[in-house]
């Protein structure tokens, strides 16, 4: 237990007992000692020099450093996270159905720890009076069956819970942690690997470095940090391989997990929390992951993780463990004390049986018994007290009072030793010790856009599918509405074409929904630790979308404009292209916004399709604006389809000299359409004389403007419609920003 | 190893070493010995009596039975599955990209076992000369890392591969197994639990019993079998609980897995194959599952399963194991011989280390080394030979030649002993020994429909969402098109309403896609072992859908018909309701068919939305039939929306006495619409005199039939349209049937 915080490269006990393992390790992890140490040493020098320049004050840090390095004191641990009497409870609605009340299974749930009861809710205690300490250099494992409170405890320690619902204290070196400081010096590794599938391991880590390492660090220093990390994670052989997904072959599951950990520890955090980092991995991969965690701990970090059934070899890497059962501590101490503990409790662990497996089964057994785990909880308390009083030096309880450094001193010492702690300066107050974001907005924007581009460029099939959809629909519309004539029927068909074409642009945008939803999880993880501003993300998301939207608009407008025979020549085409581009922009903004508020792909898609259908219904095509009932007219004005639809109508029919009904065509949409041409001419003459004006068979009786009048498209000019469509796009992007602000609070209540 | 096939209820060695475990087991598995034995004994008597009546021949079976029970011969195993020299290879496309050729990672893949190489493909050997034997009463475990060929071997033994690609022989009691016989006497338990979420455990097993147990067995006998199975599986406490899913709380993961196994072994199969039955379960649940498998084996079945990292206690339940590495056997024998084997190989297993974990790591280590696992494969061969020659009685190699029963005798003996083997009769030829399906079509239909109804009735929210969607759209349409007038504008709006309303019915059907897709997996599993005919499934699927479609149609037609002011009174409403019902029927058939051919929900939804949009485009609403270009007219006729759209148009406008344009309204859709009324009347008088007929301001100038003429809706009567819509529904159901026939071949190539 007397571990010094410098890199500990002596072989671990587990490796000794498994002789054949050495070779593989040596192969996979080559260069850790050689590459990692000089890099960190280098950075240490740089940061040290910087500090000297800025403040001139380096004594306390170096004193601490030298004390440890020369004196070799057994208690020279700079960081200790301690937590005491953590209690956390939630209110759950009481199930009121009669059948469940009388069912046998409820006997088990009735023994749950419940305190505050009302008629409709009952309080469930998820953590009950948990205390402990975790020093740096060590791995602390939280264990227990599912539902025992493992993840809850990790969340509580990582400050991922609303403060008011958690009782008890958590402190680092005796000082309570402020949320902003904790965000910078800690990392939380989630169970899911949320990585961009088409970036290589090296690129993934490099982007993480650009987000989280201070701007003062040069690009080459950041590269060195990434290379050192690749060696530390044992990822040298996979560095140039893409992460991969279902459709693309990439790195293995264990490598992916280590990349995930790597992106979170790029800034060399002091506190590292992991939620079941080995779940879903085979035993060798799991061992490699925990081995990496040990190395991280030994570089001066506190590592706290939850783990389910560690193998024998992984157990050898753990320094401390806390066993939970329904929110109570049933054991806390080192894994090696487990056999003694259980034999004292009267249930000796049989030879050859895995200790943790035995413990989990015994706990489960007790949970099912009438008395519950009460006896074990009580036994643990008395055992801990007994052990502490018998051997005061074997535990770190009195650690802080004897050799403790203040938090500020410890962080300074840590920076001097090579810990990066992004952008740290040696300011007086601990809150301004570190800035909230590592980079200014424009750098974030550049890095985010660069990453998005790299990722999408390597998945051309996604854009290909959207382009294909646009081209197929364009082709069908072009051949269906091929060279429309200028008769009244042709005018009617033009209206149909415009309504269908404008809806298509919006529907095509819905195809991007899954991509946005997938990316949102990465966004949430990254903004949770302030990797970048939410506004940068929204901006870069918009910027990156534009080129492909431009291309789609061009493809669609070029396919349809001349084929259908639309009016206006090249300037008409230009406006047609612009309004389609604006529609794509507004549509993709709308879908992006929905991806920010809808939790699930299918639900999102159903909602998009339904809302777009209503937009079309209220656009003015099915019912003209002047015929819409007054209680629905508001929906007409918020219909996104209205504006591009009216814009293309005006673009088509704005020419006052173009004729759509000429001479006897005046009877086309009337009951007289069926009478012979000669009679129609006679009727036309009659009309001429009645009206007192000369109407011949070539006289124009309906121009484009008349049609606009008929369709009620009079309230806005075509340029107004264009601007309003573009404005809708911006409006939804802003809503997207707010949805991210509100939606990415990842704290429990 | 000298295990007798009768129920073995003595405590296993693993249980002895874990004293506290006894209590829990006694609790959870209460009644196994008490309830299961009498039930099976009862059935034994029934089947025995039946056999006596039918054939009069019972001597060989009972001789075998008595020989075993009284003589206690060490080799009285009735069933032995043996497989020898199994080799299976696939052609994989060779990766031609240059970067991968020069990358370091390829060193590992280059050592893959490859034989037949061409320039574009290379042959990958997934199984290489695997031999072994599995007697009943024992569990054989296939182990190895992922990709070692575990699942491939299980698939090969379970006859889930195309015969031509698999070399080697598989025989039961020395006779090659015919596929139809194997289907009846075996069961294959997949890794995924595919169960209806809203059925209870008991109901799930009861439905399985109704599908798979012979018709000759009475309902009460089936119930007894289910109750016995519930006890055997240790599911007594969960019997009345629903299975559950994400939205509904149900049984635990381990219980769910045991229910899955239960549905597959309801017919008490002789051969039971399981693909990683413990994956995803915690150690206690996993132990319970394997304990259940041991009990099944001891009731006279051969159990073969793949397993990844069994815990120490599970290892104690396994009788034989085969370790695979890249398709080669690296160890085969009992788990207890593993330490001896590896110390002979020069890598002794350290104390306390899990044997299988050690073995997996060593194999992985060797796979990464230059020589591969060749040394271990060779060592295993020589070790097996040595062991066999040294101790001929300890292995079952010479088993069949000494005490073997023929397959027919063994199956007869098994039936007498209480094995059910669905519908077994003691016929002369082994193929007709058992019928393909347990029940006639009409019983299957009743059971399937009953199950579907039970499941959907317990998820009213699914129907609620669809009803909500229909009612909301109905409400919006009703208020938007409130009391349309009979002017020319009103006629235009009516057309829009009909097009939108008819498309809505189709779009609403798309919401059911995920449910169908989910159910399809259950269907594929069940038809794989001939639980019922595919035709029964298609029929029951159609029948069960009808009531809810009826309700949706009624809701939609009642909401809109009078609100919009549609024509025809009660008979008009009745036809309107009928055609909407027919649309729902055709739409749901179309979506059902798509669910049979589309593998993924998102893809299916996108395709449905796109196709329905094209259906609408070609329905005749956007372009009248007589104006559609000739090269697209075929699409007009396959557009599902055309028929209901034309039907409602005819229903609305068929009345030749109803007037839509009267007097001066004749000018409404012309440029003259804007002139003052007095002038219009003057113009009308002029027209009257020119035409030589009296047209006053109340004269009807356009009737419904004129409008139908204008819209080109003349080729079919409204009843024709109704029948054609219904026929489309049947057509897609038939296509669905064929898609199931083609799509549910679950064999590897």
- Profile the largest sheet of chain A: 6 strands, mixed
Terminal-residue CA separation of chain A = 37 Å
- Structural class, judged by helices and strands of chain A? alpha/beta
Q: List the strand order in the largest sheet of chain A.
A: 7-8-9-4-10-11
- Which two protein chains have the largest interface (Cβ within 8 Å of the partner's Cβ), and how many residues from each? A-B, 97 and 98 residues
Calculate Rg of chain A over CA atoms.
35 Å
Strand content of chain A: 5-15%
DSSP E strands of chain A, number: 13
Instruction: Work out the helicity level of chain A.
Output: 40-55%
Unreliable residue stretches of chain A: 1-76, 97-116, 393-403, 422-433
The assembly state of the depicted protein chains is homodimer
Tally of contiguous helical segments of chain A: 30
Record keyword descriptors for this entry.
homodimer; ABC2_TM (chains A, B); ATP binding (chains A, B); AAA+_ATPase (chains A, B); ABC transporter G family member 1 (chains A, B); 6-stranded mixed sheet; 749 residues; disordered N terminus; alpha/beta; 5-stranded antiparallel sheet
Structural summary, described in words:
- 2 copies of one chain form a homodimer.
- In chain A, 54% of the residues lie in helices and 11% in strands.
- In chain A, helix 20 packs parallel to helix 23.
- In chain A, strand 8, helix 12 and strand 9 form a beta-alpha-beta unit.
- By secondary structure, chain A is α/β, with parallel strands linked by helices.
- Chains A and B meet through helix 2, helix 15, helix 20, helix 21 and helix 25 of A and helix 2, helix 15, helix 20, helix 21 and helix 25 of B.
């Amino acid at each position: 237990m007397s571990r010094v915080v410098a890199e500990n490269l002596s072989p671990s006990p587990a490796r000794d007992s498994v002789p054949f393992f050495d070779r593989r390790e040596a192969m996979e992890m080559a260069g850790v000692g050689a590459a990692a140490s000089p890099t960190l040493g280098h950075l240490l020098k740089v940061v040290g020099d910087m500090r000297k320049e800025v403040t001139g004050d380096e004594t306390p840090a170096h004193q601490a450093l030298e004390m440890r390095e020369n004196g070799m004191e057994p208690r020279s641990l700079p960081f200790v996270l301690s937590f005491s009497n953590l209690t956390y409870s939630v209110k759950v609605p009481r199930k009121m159905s009669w059948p469940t009340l009388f069912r046998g299974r409820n006997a088990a749930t009735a023994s749950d720890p419940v305190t505050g009861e009302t008629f409709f809710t009952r309080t469930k205690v998820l953590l009950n009076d948990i205390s402990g300490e975790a020093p740096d250099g060590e791995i602390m494992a939280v264990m227990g069956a599912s539902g025992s409170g493992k993840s809850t405890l990790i969340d509580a320690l990582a400050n991922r819970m609303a403060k008011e619902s958690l009782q008890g204290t958590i402190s680092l070196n005796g000082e309570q942690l402020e949320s902003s400081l904790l965000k910078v010096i800690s990392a939380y590794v989630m169970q899911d690997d949320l990585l961009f599938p088409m970036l290589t391991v090296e690129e993934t880590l490099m982007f993480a470095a650009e987000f989280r390492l201070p701007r003062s660090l040069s690009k080459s220093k950041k590269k060195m940090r990434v290379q050192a990390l690749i060696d530390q994670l044992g990822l040298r052989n996979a560095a140039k391989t893409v992460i991969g997904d279902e459709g693309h072959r990439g790195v293995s599951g264990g490598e992916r997990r280590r990349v995930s950990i790597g992106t979170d520890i790029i800034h060399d955090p002091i506190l590292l929390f992991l939620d079941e980092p080995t779940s879903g991995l085979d035993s060798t991969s799991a061992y490699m992951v925990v081995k990496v965690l040990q190395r991280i701990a030994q570089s001066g970090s506190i590592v706290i993780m939850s783990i389910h059934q560690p193998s024998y070899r992984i157990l050898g890497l753990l320094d401390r463990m806390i066993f939970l059962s329904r929110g109570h501590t049933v054991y806390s101490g080192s894994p090696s004390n487990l056999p003694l503990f259980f034999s004292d409790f009267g249930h000796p662990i049989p030879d050859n049986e895995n200790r943790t497996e035995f413990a989990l089964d015994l706990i489960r057994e007790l949970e099912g018994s009438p008395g519950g785990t009460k006896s074990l909880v009580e036994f643990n308390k008395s055992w801990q007290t007994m052990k502490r009083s018998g051997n005061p030096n074997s535990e770190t309880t009195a650690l802080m009072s004897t050799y403790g450094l203040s938090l500020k001193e410890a962080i300074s010492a840590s920076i001097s030793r090579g810990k990066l702690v992004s952008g740290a300066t040696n300011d007086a107050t601990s809150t301004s010790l570190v800035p909230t974001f590592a980079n200014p907005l424009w750098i974030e924007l550049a890095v985010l856009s660069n990453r998005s581009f790299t990722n999408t460029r390597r998945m051309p099939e996604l854009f290909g599918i959207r382009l294909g959809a646009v081209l197929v629909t364009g082709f069908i519309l072009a051949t269906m509405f091929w060279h429309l004539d200028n008769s009244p029927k042709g005018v009617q068909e033009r209206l149909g074409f415009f309504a269908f074409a404008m809806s298509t642009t919006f529907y095509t945008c819905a195809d991007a929904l899954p991509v946005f939803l997938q990316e949102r999880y990465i966004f949430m993880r990254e903004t949770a630790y302030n990797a970048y501003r939410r506004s940068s993300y929204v901006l870069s998301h918009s910027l990156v979308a534009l080129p492909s939207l431009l291309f789609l608009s061009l493809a669609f407008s070029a396919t349809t404009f001349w084929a259908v025979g639309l009016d206006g020549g090249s300037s008409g085409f230009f406006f047609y292209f612009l309004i389609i581009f604006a529609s794509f922009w507004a549509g993709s903004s709308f879908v992006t916004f929905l991806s920010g508020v809808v939790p699930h792909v299918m639900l999102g898609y159903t909602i998009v399709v339904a809302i777009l259908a209503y937009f079309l219904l209220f656009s003015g095509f099915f019912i003209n604006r002047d015929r819409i009932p007054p209680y629905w007219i508001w929906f007409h004005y918020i219909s996104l389809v209205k504006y591009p639809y009216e814009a293309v109508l005006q673009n088509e029919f704005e020419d006052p000299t173009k004729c759509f009904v000429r001479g006897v065509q005046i009877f086309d949409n009337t009951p007289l359409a069926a009478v012979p041409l000669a009679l129609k001419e006679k009727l036309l003459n009659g009309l001429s004389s009645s009206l007192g004006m000369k109407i011949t068979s070539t006289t124009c009786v309906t121009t484009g403007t008349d049609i606009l009048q008929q369709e009620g498209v009079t309230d806005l000019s075509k340029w107004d419609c264009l601007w309003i469509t573009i404005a809708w796009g911006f409006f939804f992007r802003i809503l997207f920003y707010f949805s991210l602000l509100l939606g990415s609070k990842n704290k429990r209540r």
